[in-house]
Amino acid sequence: MTIKSLDHVSVVDDDLAAAIAFFTGLGMTIEGEMPVEGPWVDRVNGLESVQVDIVMMRTPDGHGRLELTKFRNPRLVEIEPAIAATNTLGLQSVIFTVESVDDTVARLRANGAELVGEVAQYEDKYRLCYMRGPAGIIVALAEELF
User: In whole angstroms, what is the distance from residue 107 CA to residue 96 CA?
Assistant: First the structure.
């Protein structure tokens, strides 16, 4: 059996408004919003009395989706350090192909995002960078040069 598709990536954040503004600045749109709770959510998460707010966002091409999740219960578990470096174990970034890295960086900075390093070019193929947004999430931006 093989994977049929990648359905979506989930990001837990305590400030949904800031996360929505960040991903809207990337060009994503809200697909839907809803509170989620109940026994099935508890079983899936391995936690008790889960209450979350979910916002589903979609990329402009309609193929990529991102789930923004805010836990109302139980309370969030903070990681140490709160702002992890790019070499921290685990899933570190989601990469988006953009029309212009410079324009996208400017839009995201207007919403409080910061460059992790700097914009760099890989051969004659891509201009790339990492941006840190709400809750320390890192997104990679790639501009195709071919």
Answer: 14
First to last CA, the chain: 35
Q: Flag whether the pTM goes above 0.70.
A: yes
Backbone angles phi, psi at 66, to 5 degrees: -130, 130
CATH class (in words) of the domain with range 9-73? alpha beta
| pLDDT reported for residue 27 | 94
What are the extents of the domains in the chain? Answer: 9-73, 93-144
Q: What is the DSSP letter of 69?
A: E
In the prediction, which pLDDT does 115 show? 95
- The sheet carrying 9-12 orders its strands as 9-12, 65-73, 51-58, 29-37
Distance of alpha carbon 138 from the chain centroid: 7
CATH architecture of 93-144: Roll (3.10)
Please indicate whether the domains covering 9-73 and 93-144 agree at the CATH topology level.
yes
Task: Quick: pLDDT tens for 1-44.
Answer: 688 888 999 999 999 999 999 999 999 999 999 999 999 999 99
3-state SS class at 108: helix
42 three-state secondary structure: helix
